[in-house]
Every structure is written in C-alpha cells, then in structure tokens.
Specification:
Blueprint lengths: L8 E7 L9 E8 L18 E7 L2 E7 L14 E8 L9 E7 L9 E4 L5 E7 L2 E9 L4 E10 L4 E2 L7 E2 L5 E8 L9 E7 L7 E6 L3 E6 L4 E7 L5 E5 L2 E6 L4 E6 L11 E9 L9 E3 L5 E6 L3 E12 L4 E5 L6 E5 L1
C-alpha cells in the first residue's frame, strides 16, 4: 500500500570490518527511483551481516537493513521529526564548544550521527530525523562526550517533547584550557594538530583538534589531559594540561644533514635516490621520503631527538604518478639525533 515515490535517492551501504569498526556502514552506491518507485543495484557486494538501504526524498528519510542474500526490499518513507532542547553552561564556556549528536539505535546504532551545534543561547534543534529511538550525546570540540541521554524518541511529522532535553545542566562539569603558543620563525605558516588523551587511568578518551592561529580553547570534562602537539617545522611537544591558561614556546625542528660520498653517481631524472627516516619512538611510522634532487647533500627536519633508521629507495617520477623501489640490499643504517 502507499503511493510510489519517484526521484527518491536510495543509497546502498555495507558494514565495515566486524573486528575494527562493527558499528559503521559505508556507502558503495546510489540509485534514483523511477516513476513507479522502483530502484535497482546490480552486483551489490555480499556481506554476511547484510546491507543497509537508506532512502530520502524531500523531508522524508528512512533506513532499513536487508538480510544477507536478500534480493528484494520495500522501503516505506515516513515524514521526519524534529528534536529541540537547551543546554545550561557556566559563564566563560562558549556554546560553540559543544555539539549535540543524535545516533539512531534501532539497528544497533549503525551509521554516522546527526550533529548540530548549539546556538549562542545554548539551544539546539535537529531536523529531518527519521522516526525511531536515538541516543543524544553532548560532545565537546575536543572530542570528549560530556553527557549521554538515551532513549530520545522521534515521531514522524512531530516535534519531540522530552523534558529531559529542557535545560540540560552542564554547569560545573566543563573546564576550559586556554593554550597560547609562542611561535618560532618559520619559512611557512604554522600548521598542526593537538592529540589529546585522558590522563585519568579509569577514563578512556582520545581526540584531536586542528590548531589554527596561535591560540586555542580546549573544553574538557576531566581533571587533566595528556597532550601531544605536532606542528610542521617544530619539535613535538608533550605535556599535561589542566583547566586554566597555559603558554607554551614551540621549538624549531631539529635539522639533519645526510651527505653522500662524491664517488656516488646520482641517477639522471626522472629517477632519484632517496631515503626514509624511521624513528624508534614512532612505532615504525616513518617521517616521509626525502630525495637527493641535484646535490649530494640532503637536509631533513626531525621533530624529536633519538635514533633514526635510514632506508634507501629509488623513485621514478611519471607525469601522473611516482613509483618507489626499496633497496633491500643496502645495509641497515642508523642516525642518532641529539
């Protein structure tokens, strides 16, 4: 029963790895319905956990799971609903540091949440949510979750009236870390990230923030955070942060010079000899590739002192791509950076 819907967009999604991200679904294709409301996917991937179909048209949206091996599905579009609420914050805590995230839990919480910012008065409104049960998370821009409210019910064509969402009190629960950086002279603009981790052993949290300019406000619901600052052209800085004001002087990166003997003949372009530098402290993650362009000297920037492993490669550059070949026959070499 019902009226066929033409020009609706149907998206086919498959589950991610059961081991690494069982809660995520990823889109792999889309189809637009015909006048009769029909849609088709040819050769869809086979998954033991089934696939998900999400259909949207105007203000109506619906998702359904198709069982493994299913060849036919009928999607009934319903009017979407709206959820609104307000959050109470301390003076000095900007509403722009908090987000309201709604995750649909009907199918085990699969998929990306709908995230809306707080207005300057602390209010929020999420529209075009398909009917069902949601989990509301109040998330900080640092990546922390300050509060979770379960079982928020959204009804088709209605605005949810849930008294738990009126005046959600976060006062006294969020501290602000004001971090100001003193920047060394660099040939390029400062770019980098702050990686955050819970310093309290009974709490599990990791997050990151992009750093723009020389100042950032980090909201936190914890007593303290461990922070790692990684900026191009600067030393990596590791420190413990607590709510309050903190000033940190960044240090320029360490310079490393690798020089080849003059007896070594460099290959002619478009082939180049190069090295990768892998620090022992980085769990096997290298610092990138560096090539000898025309000189027998190579200058590299290193973000930390310690021991580096040098691996050699030959790079052949094409018009649209480059190909690297590791020189496994070269003996392993190490460099100590002080």
């Amino acid at each position: 029963a019902g009226t066929p819907v033409a020009n609706a967009v149907v998206r086919l999604e498959v589950p991610a790895s059961q081991t690494f991200a069982p809660q995520w679904f990823f889109p792999v294709g889309s189809s637009v319905t015909s006048e009769s409301g029909a849609f088709a996917f040819y050769g869809p991937p086979i998954s033991e956990r089934g696939i998900r179909l999400s259909a949207s048209h105007a203000d109506r949206v619906y998702s359904c799971l198709a069982a493994p091996g299913a060849r036919l599905a009928r999607i009934v579009l319903a009017s979407t609903g709206t959820v609104a609420g307000t959050v109470l914050l301390d003076n000095g805590v900007s509403p722009g540091l908090v987000r309201a995230a709604f995750r649909k839990v009907d199918f085990g919480g699969h998929g990306l949440p709908s995230v809306v910012p707080l207005a300057p008065d602390g209010s929020f409104k999420a529209s075009n949510l398909d009917a069902g049960s949601y989990e509301l998370s109040l998330r900080l821009t640092s990546g922390e979750t300050a509060l979770v409210i379960p079982d928020v019910v959204v009804s088709s064509g209605a605005s949810t009236s849930d008294q738990r969402l009126v005046g959600i009190d976060l006062r006294g629960r969020i501290g602000i870390i004001d971090l100001k950086l003193l920047i060394p002279r660099l040939e390029r603009g400062l770019q980098g990230h702050i990686y955050l981790k819970a310093a309290e052993h009974d709490k599990h949290f990791t997050g990151s923030m992009e750093f723009i300019g020389d100042h950032v406000s980090i909201p936190t619901a914890m007593v303290q955070l461990w922070a790692t600052l990684v900026f191009d052209g600067c030393r990596t800085e590791r420190l413990t942060l607590v709510p309050g004001t903190r000033t940190l002087a960044l240090r320029p990166a360490l310079s490393v010079c690798i020089e080849l003997p003059r007896s070594v003949v460099l290959p002619p372009p478009p082939t180049f000899l190069g090295v990768t530098l892998t620090p022992e402290w980085a769990s096997g993650v290298d610092l990138g590739g560096f090539v000898f362009e025309e000189s027998h000297q190579l200058l590299c920037e290193v973000s930390d002192a310690g021991r580096l492993r040098i691996d050699w490669f030959v790079e052949t550059r094409g018009r649209n791509a480059s190909r690297r070949t590791l020189l496994d026959s070269m003996p392993k070499q190490f460099l100590d950076v002080q």
